[in-house]
Design goal:
GO molecular function, one term: transferase activity
Protein name: Glycosyl transferase family 2
CATH superfamily of the largest domain: Spore Coat Polysaccharide Biosynthesis Protein SpsA, Chain A
Number of helices: 18
Strand content: 15-25%
Structural class: alpha/beta
Keywords: Transferase
Largest sheet: 7 strands, mixed
Organism: Granulicella mallensis (strain ATCC BAA-1857 / DSM 23137 / MP5ACTX8)
Number of domains: 2
CATH architecture of the largest domain: Alpha-Beta Complex
């Protein structure tokens, strides 16, 4: 590693790269255990007592968030007694029965641990397995770990055949639509990094939660692992609540969550809107191919998102992916595991201090759909220029046509839409030499005008995006001959040698 690379690496908040070697776990976590309870008076106390007795070096603190889903059998009084005895127990209550998914949503709002895990209150699952579920977070930088009742272990109890067959069929279908290879999608034990868990909108109140969270984690490109767990199945006579109706609901959920991309809660970064654009895979591939001739070997990407372009341009001698969205940064850090050339860092394009130690380190700064968001364009351009070597290039994509500014731009927090003249003027004022400015994506102009100026939409239609994806091969060929300017402008500008 060069001295310059060492200078760049020191201030970074590097994600801990890991090895596949077995060894003592040196990382411990704060844990939030989410426990939905409904009419379990005979089992809930031993279940919680066993959970509260759990001790392991990988757990440095634990909170147990119990949601009484309007029990009517005396469970509430038992829960109140346990909560009064142990200050680690947070007791919440629904005034009407709403279902497992709703109870977990309520519990998750109060979770403060680094990792949250779902625990049922019926003694079917053993808390002694929880440390094994946490191990991949320490050794593999996992985003989520599912406890599997069917993975190989030293021993496994023979389970109900029909129930097992139904579960395996659901898991098989879910794997087809998510392109995962899970062995047990209906497992209760799902451990997920809390910020990631809290950023996902959970819509269903019932047992469809199991399908929903698996699909949304897959669409968020989370690093999902499985770990073997024990399972003490109870019969329907003993109070098992999931039934044949839930199988049909799960099947409908598989189709629903395959088609609907509802994977981000609304936030200040517009994640839910940007995520829909990132699903246009062929469009993003076209964009990457257009930018690729101008990308060098040492790249700083401002506003990497979930790595839509990053994945097209690596490996490189050095690639620094940056963003300000915590959800995106978390994904990028997981994505960087096993890629020593790929580094991840929080960089706000408008904050000079965020560029500390990057001075003169890169031959390319790539900034796509960022400049229109920053409050001070000149500070941002001066920041990226400081990161470039003499002769290095800034490759910048911005929205074009001020007359198109509408509700979509407002929802995306666009400060303005550019003209070639205003973009050139800003670059030259910052001291860049402009090599070229050219149009990109002419065919989307009518659609943007219609959605943002006529229909006044604030998001993109999933149907329109799927049609765009389907027609991309034809639209790419038509694009150069369309008689109007592109929806976007691409500028290639050079930092002077002197």
């Amino acid at each position: 590693m060069s001295v310059q690379d060492q200078r760049l690496l020191e201030p970074m908040q590097r994600w801990s790269h890991v090895t596949m070697m077995e060894g003592p776990i040196s990382t411990s976590f704060s844990l939030s255990v989410l426990v939905p309870v409904y009419n379990e008076r005979y089992l809930v106390e031993p279940s919680l007592r066993r959970l509260l007795a759990l001790q392991d070096p990988i757990i440095h603190s634990m909170e147990v968030i119990v949601v009484d889903d309007c029990s009517t059998d005396g469970s509430r009084e038992i829960l109140q007694q346990i909560a009064s005895e142990d200050d680690r127990v947070v007791l919440l209550r629904h005034e009407r029965n709403m279902g497992k998914g709703a109870a977990l949503r309520t519990a998750l709002e109060k979770a403060t641990g680094e990792i949250s895990i779902v625990h049922d209150s019926d003694l079917e699952y053993n808390p002694a397995d929880i440390p094994l579920l946490l191990k991949p977070f320490a050794t593999e930088s996992a985003d989520a770990v599912f406890g599997s009742r069917y993975l190989s272990s030293h021993y496994r109890r023979a389970l109900m055949f029909r129930h097992t067959l139904s579960n395996k069929a659901l898991t098989f279908l879910a794997n087809i639509f998510t392109d995962l290879n899970l062995s047990d999608i209906e497992t209760c034990y799902k451990a997920i990094r809390t910020p990631l868990f809290q950023s996902i909108p959970l819509r269903h109140n019932d047992f469809r939660f199991e399908i929903e969270i698996a699909f949304k984690l897959a669409k968020r490109r989370a690093r999902i692992f499985e770990a073997p767990i024990s399972y003490l199945a109870r019969s329907y006579q003993e109070g098992k609540k999931i039934g044949h109706k839930d199988i049909w609901l799960a099947l409908s959920a598989i189709l629903h969550f395959w088609f609907i991309d509802d994977i981000y809660k609304e936030d200040q970064y517009g994640s839910q809107i940007l995520a829909s654009l990132e699903k246009a895979r062929r469009f993003n591939l076209w964009m990457g191919q257009t930018l690729a001739p101008y990308v060098g070997d040492r790249v700083l990407e401002i506003g990497s998102g979930i790595g839509t372009l990053t994945g097209q341009f690596i490996p490189r001698e050095l690639y620094l992916a940056s963003d300000i969205n915590p959800s995106y940064l978390s994904y990028l850090r997981s994505y960087s595991v096993g890629k020593p050339y790929l580094r991840v860092r929080h960089i706000d394009a408008g904050v000079p201090g965020d560029f500390a130690s990057t001075e003169g380190q890169f031959d390319t700064v790539l900034m796509v759909n960022v400049l229109e968001h920053v409050p001070n364009e000149q500070i941002t351009l001066e920041n990226i220029k400081s990161s470039l070597m003499p002769g290095g290039r800034a490759v910048i994509l911005v929205p074009q046509h001020p007359a198109l500014y509408g509700t979509l731009d407002h929802a995306l927090d666009h400060r303005e839409r550019y003209t070639p003249q205003s973009l050139r003027q800003g670059l030259e004022q910052a001291g860049f030499q402009v090599e070229r400015i050219f149009d990109f994506n002419r065919f989307s102009v009518p659609g943007w005008w219609f959605n943002g100026k006529v229909l006044k939409r604030k998001t993109f239609s999933p149907v329109q995006l799927k049609v765009l994806q389907m027609l991309m091969p034809v639209l790419r060929r038509l694009d150069p001959i369309l008689p109007w300017g592109g929806l976007s402008l691409i500028a290639v500008a050079t930092k002077p040698q002197a």
